[in-house]
Write a structure and sequence with these properties.
The protein has 100 residues and is of the alpha+beta class. It has helices at residues 19-35, 62-69, 72-81, and strands spanning 6-13, 39-46, 52-59, 92-94. It has three helices and four strands, in the order βαββααβ. The protein is globular and about 45 Å long.
Length: 100
């Protein structure tokens, strides 16, 4: 992994009645992230018929992700999913071990 690469994964579980709106909001934020400078990859993963999603993010730097997190797109996303999860999602920073 290059020193500047940033990999983050966030697991979240939507409340049953909010599942469809959460999936749509996640799709929208993924599109916005992919268009943002510094985004290398942004994927939303979900097992079939599951309310649990995993966001996979890879950014060129923490600074670029920070700029995205301060954007209007993220504010819109946060508003769309407020009170939609069973508990507050907690992003976790990961190192890539198999790349030098």
């Amino acid at each position: 992994m290059k020193d500047s690469d940033l990999v983050i994964m966030t697991k979240a579980e939507a409340k049953p009645e909010k599942q469809k709106s959460v999936i749509q909001a996640l799709r929208n934020i993924a599109v916005a992230a992919r268009d943002h400078p510094g985004c290398i990859e942004y994927s939303i993963l979900c097992a079939e018929d599951s309310a649990v999603t995993i966001n996979f993010e890879r950014w060129a730097s923490n600074e670029e992700r920070g700029k995205f997190m301060a954007s209007a797109d993220v504010k819109k996303f946060a508003s769309a999913v407020s009170d939609a999860f069973t508990e507050t999602p907690k992003p976790i920073l990961y190192d890539i071990l198999d790349v030098e």
